[in-house]
Amino acid sequence: MRLGREDIRRVDVSDVRVHAGGRVTLPRDHRWVVVDVETSGLRPNAHRVLSVAALALREDGSVEREFSSLVDPGCDPGPVHVHNLTRERLSGAPRFEDIAAELADILDGGTVVAHNASFDYGFLDAEFRRAGKSLPAQQRLCTLALSRRLELDVPNYKLSTLAQHWQVQQLQEHDAYDDARVLSEIFLRSAGLADNLQLPLPVMNCRSRKSVYPDSVPRVTCAWKNPGRLTEAGLVQGMKVVISGSTATPRLTLASRMTEAGLDVLNQVSKQTSVVVCNDPVVQTTKVRKAMAEGIPVISEQQLDELLTRVVPGEPKVATVIDVVPQVETTVETPQVLTAPVPQATSPAQNWALQGHAPKLWSGRKVLLLGGTHLEGVLMRSRITQLGARPALNFTAAVTDALILDGGESDKRMPRVVQRELPVLTPDDVNAAVEKGVVPPHMRTEARLTAPVLSLGEVIDLPEKIQSWSVNIAWKAESAGDEFDIDIVAFLLGDDEKVDTDDDFVFYNNPLYDDGVVELTIDGSSEQCVRLDLASLPAECERIAIAAAIDGDRTFGDLGAVSVSIDSDEGVAATFVLDAGTTERTMVLAEIYRRAGKWRVRAVGQGYDDDLGALAVRYGVDVESDD
After folding, report:
1. What SS3 class is residue 461?
2. Which of 237, 384, 434, 504 has its C-alpha lying 20 to 30 A from 37's C-alpha?
3. What's the burial of 343, exposed, middle or buried (CB within 10 Å: 0-12/13-18/19+)?
């Protein structure tokens, strides 16, 4: 495989920088084009754009030029209940190749601005390639990543929530043009706040090696249960098929034929594979060797052609209710296990994570460290976490206090601390709070409930009724451009702590597992995210390990602290900061695992001095694949 807070001064629209005319201004070093697409599904290689809007902005945020159009995809429009784009509405609309030239003209040389920009950019890139053209924009900015970097006081970062926060009227949700209009106003205000905080914008170079949607056999969700291995009875709908080696028919065409016949086409061999297609099994590729070791049948392309003429109907997948019988714990865990309860309808969304838990002394505070050595910073961040506060990596809208270590007075962010009249703390204040429970008199009272801040090794139970989660990883934004190249990866592990197949390794060249059950998104220059649908994970997946790797000779000691938050649309379940790295080049950040019928999250922080390839091999990935 290729590798309640009224007494704290809030930061809002009135705090952002304005020019002499009284209007917020956008940075002049980019030509900003706000984009939104509605699509027939989640995979750019398998699904199509149904509607697109693009708004080129002037410096004051007004629209200089705009383009919007419905698009006839020539296929099923997918989730009509979301976008309301039926076959009838799309009938008669232009095909993408008919609008490609006009859309390319407005995008040419621009920086694409979108909410979850890797999604929109990936779909546009795929459509332009189908039309025989290249997407003429080489940079993008994700407003989701920007909002996270600013740490706005919102329960989640959905477009509708941000519109409400910035007091932008939303007329028609999931309409490409209206979403782009709303997003342009959100971006204008967010960029102004970032300028006020002197935070760099999370602009991404789209032509980097991190190809978010690589060319491969696209995984299409199969509607049939897997009947098991191929037998003399022939192919049955739902069988899992893998292609290995060269084929007479182009691989994607062959895969499409099998998918249309009701087969489940995958890229890697696992214990669940029904049959492998290989024209020259004597060569013994990695996939063929694994198939032979597992007793999986191997057939030729010609045999496949014959079998495809008589595929037996399969058993449809149906939703079933499963009673989970709690298992007796056989392993004793030393960390305290917290439980994040399901939010109640009467409670503010951002406060749900601490219901039933007494807040710690400094709960709800966000403390920025200035100055000091690496070891001093590690010690102070550990003590801040003990007090229930969150160490801040950047000067954001959420920072409530500044902790000054040796040399911190000369930090370039100190004038902003003074400007915002933030309480200034010393190491003595932190030590007195830990050892004696003393709250410094100059620290304002903080009443806001927030999610638990986990210490190294600590565990929290996730609410059973919430199944969709995001693990957001970030590091110091002001390090962007300092030659750090960070890869966030995820390993789907069985009970043997190994991946079953290389498809269970989610990384920049394999960013989607099973049509989005696990998805990696590169959201900004110092933000990446692993999204999980726990309800759809295969039963054999017992644990998901999420790790980070630094490319080249740089180490986690050079990078500094890494922030991790686990959240859903209902709120944040937990956060933690890992900052004890020194010579390590890879680090396991978190584990999400099953125990006694529940999903748990553990803050790990286990580092290694070797590279991503070595880490992948430890988890059972075949790095030297010869297919």
Report:
1. strand
2. 504
3. buried
